[in-house]
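FAQ

Q: What does a record look like?
A: Structure on top, sequence underneath. For example:
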């Protein structure tokens, strides 16, 4: 529901639906990376930077689900957190986050090369 509202441009409705989804997931002890990540994007677009940052941090803590794109999705999450800090004029914190993104990107490339070498 939240994603459908987001796609239709109803960011406030999407944020409300995604907030509910994240609350339900946490109550069931099953938080969703996708719900927190999407919520962060909605809140960022609404210029609610503190809340967006919290959503991205929680998504990063939960981690993307297993799969071939897990590292890329985790990296995107941390990158979006940095963009949120930058938009909120927290330049020093954003710089630190982008340094982390750079290290994660190197790790991602190392893992991809290692997998290709193993094949």
């Amino acid at each position: 529901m939240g994603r459908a509202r987001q796609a239709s441009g109803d960011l406030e409705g999407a944020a409300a639906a995604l907030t509910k989804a994240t609350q339900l997931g946490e109550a069931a002890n099953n938080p969703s990376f996708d719900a927190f990540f999407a919520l962060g994007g909605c809140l960022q677009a609404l210029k609610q930077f503190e809340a967006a940052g919290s959503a991205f941090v929680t998504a990063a803590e939960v981690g993307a689900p297993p799969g071939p794109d897990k590292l890329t999705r985790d990296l995107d999450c941390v990158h979006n957190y940095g963009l949120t800090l930058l938009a909120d004029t927290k330049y020093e914190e954003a710089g630190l986050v982008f340094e982390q993104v750079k290290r994660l990107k190197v790790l991602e490339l190392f893992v991809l090369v290692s997998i290709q070498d193993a094949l």
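Q: Is there anything notable about this one?
A: The CA atoms of residues 68 and 112 lie 10 Å apart.
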